[in-house]
Write a structure and sequence with these properties.
- The protein is an alpha/beta fold.
- It has two domains: 5-133, Rossmann fold; 196-334, Rossmann fold, CATH 3.40.50.
- It contains twelve helices and ten strands.
- A five-stranded parallel β-sheet has the order 2-1-3-4-5, sandwiched between helices.
- Helix 7 links the parallel strand 6 and strand 7 (223-227).
- Helix 1 (15-28) packs parallel to helix 5 and helix 5 packs across helix 6 (134-157).
């Protein structure tokens, strides 16, 4: 049996982060392989591993590395499969590894998760696989329900320990609250047949959104593009996300606090790709986008790199689509033959 996921560590010292991925993949019952190969010290080994694994049918790669974490980018150079990068905390808190992983050039995207977030890398890999694997989709739903239950139960385990003269612990009991599901309203300007939904949080982000759309057009991927902010238009945002039932991948583009990708993760179990942007380096949007809590990963690409977001979406959708794979390979090979 060919594993669906290959985890490659840049060093054996990264094994504790890999174990976070392993625990999730075991729980989700997704077959995986684990190897150690350094992008710098055993470059030819990385190349051979990735090429042969791709040919064998591995669907997703996870690269885990610290310091000058070039491993995920090198993996991406040798495959048309999606690559997830896990930066590992080091001497400067893992920021060096984060930047090395996320800021790779077009057309070799790395879907970067938060520092040391091996668990989110595995969940993201499962989300990619779940697009064409119903069993994986069910397992993801079960896992997300577990995370939600932990949060709800904290209202009783954590808050009950608080002692105070003025706290009312019985006010608005969490489990008794009525959560209403609004009926989805259709809108003529939305393309409900789209496989990729591109959402910009502000009209100033539309330049990046257009870069995404151009590449998706080249890859012949049907998409929809809208400007919707979950803070300014919360009802319309929720209605849109829940109404786009044929969408397999969401791409959120945002400057400042990247609430748009967080909003997407809260409303869908489909993979969410994040494109941080902004005039002042985009560091604020990058950090608020990539550093998601366990269970709700954002596949973050480089600042303003909308083109890599589109390529990543293509890689995800091409896993079980031979026609998309051919177009994707032609696009990547053409751009990399400079």
């Amino acid at each position: 049996m060919v594993p669906k996921v290959m985890i490659i560590l840049g060093s054996g010292s990264d094994i504790d982060i890999a174990k976070k991925s392993i625990d999730i993949l075991e729980k989700l019952e997704i077959p995986y392989s684990l190897k150690v190969a350094s992008a710098h010290r055993t470059h030819s080994l990385v190349k051979a591993l990735v090429k042969e694994a791709t040919e064998a049918g591995v669907e997703v790669f996870i690269g885990i590395a610290g310091l000058a974490a070039h491993l995920p980018g090198i993996i991406s150079a040798y495959t048309h499969r999606p690559v997830i990068g896990v930066p590992v905390k080091g001497a400067v808190g893992g920021i060096d590894a984060l930047y090395a992983s996320v800021q790779v050039p077009y057309p070799t995207p790395v879907a970067t998760v938060g520092i040391n977030r091996g668990d989110n890398a595995a969940i993201l890999a499962a989300q990619f696989i779940a697009i064409h694997d119903p069993k994986a989709a069910v397992k993801i739903s079960e896992l997300r329900n577990e995370y939600a239950t932990k949060v709800i139960d904290s209202n009783y385990t954590v808050i009950d320990e608080i002692e105070g003269n003025y706290i009312d612990k019985d006010f608005l009991d969490i489990k008794s609250l009525k959560i209403e599901e609004k009926e989805i309203e259709t809108c003529r300007k939305y393309n409900y047949d789209a496989k990729v939904a591109v959402l910009a949080g502000n009209y100033s982000d539309i330049v990046i959104a257009k870069k995404v759309a151009i590449i998706l057009d080249r890859l012949k991927i049907e998409h929809d593009m809208q400007v919707l902010c979950p803070i300014r238009h919360p009802e319309a945002f929720e209605n849109y996300v829940k109404g786009m039932k044929n969408v397999d991948v969401f791409i959120g583009i945002s400057s400042n606090s990247s609430i748009i990708t967080g909003g997407l993760c809260g409303l869908t179990e489909k993979p969410v790709i994040g494109v941080p942007c902004g005039e002042k380096l985009g560091i604020d949007s990058l950090l608020s986008m990539v550093n998601m809590p366990p269970g709700v990963p954002v596949a973050t690409v480089g600042v303003n790199n909308g083109r890599n977001a589109a390529i990543l979406a293509g890689e995800i959708l091409a896993v079980d689509n031979p026609d998309k794979k051919v177009i994707l390979e032609k696009t990547k090979n053409k751009k990399m033959s400079i």
